């Protein structure tokens, strides 16, 4: 290593030399009071070193950062965190001074920087300075966790007259971002279970949680599971509550898909419904359920039973109306299972019901002369004709 030239390099070298003198020193003779004091001073020393590290990292170029990470065997994210802190401290002089003096630890400094970054971009610089000074002062008595909470209400301290308007604007922005970020993924493992993840706005998460808790309250659970049901709902209880919620949602509460309610249609042979036959029942989604579950769900609002051999509905309307009825759409979906264009696997709920003989040219509105086509193939068919 070259002889240190810069003041910072010289100081680091001296620090190494001093630490070398205590590498083998035993701690058995330290008193409890001296041990406590020394630990505090070591923590302050680490904070001062961290500020110096962040300051030098902010000065380094990309190639230097890569070399630093490689030679010290650090992961790239750790190096980038230090560099970002150094860049932030350039404009947060009070935080930098407190960290350099050992009056903050890195976690506190990062929380303060993050809280200041959340202030309105057009806030008066004098108020930003006041906010920084306030959090640095609070850091003398509070750890990073409490500082994070104080940071969320920072505007109330420095600009109480702006709080309501800013909070409303911030909430609107967060809600809009949350809707954009909303997603839902689910997959069937082929063994009777589905697994998934979701991201939804906070309001909808709170509403869903409240719905599930309604199913897990003590009175409801005692009525459905018997005495002795656990009072505190855990993941399993909430999972069962989600299943019950899904079963209780009626098709009248949901928008229609493909001309019918968003319900699961199950084909149940009459002998199965009457418990004279044990046979799996087919869902219009392509899955299967046990006859016991089919019988239980047959009377629920979330499932439409199509009983083979039972009372039928009128499926042939001839020329009386142009659009297929709900019963006709269900019958067509059960027959076709998917878009009828070869190679297309779009499910019935996302398909249109197409007249093979166009209604405008005298075609009837019935099941025999209709089939499922997804929107793309439906449009392509009419472009051809």
TrEMBL record:
- UniProtKB keywords: Endonuclease, Hydrolase, Nuclease
Residue ranges of every copy of the HNH nuclease domain listed in the record? 327-379
- Determine the domain of life of the protein's source: Bacteria
Keyword Nuclease present in the record's keywords: the answer is yes
CDD domains hit by this protein:
HNHc (cd00085)
What GO MF annotations does this protein's record show?
endonuclease activity
- Protein name as annotated: HNH endonuclease signature motif containing protein
Q: Which organism is it from?
A: Nocardioides aquiterrae
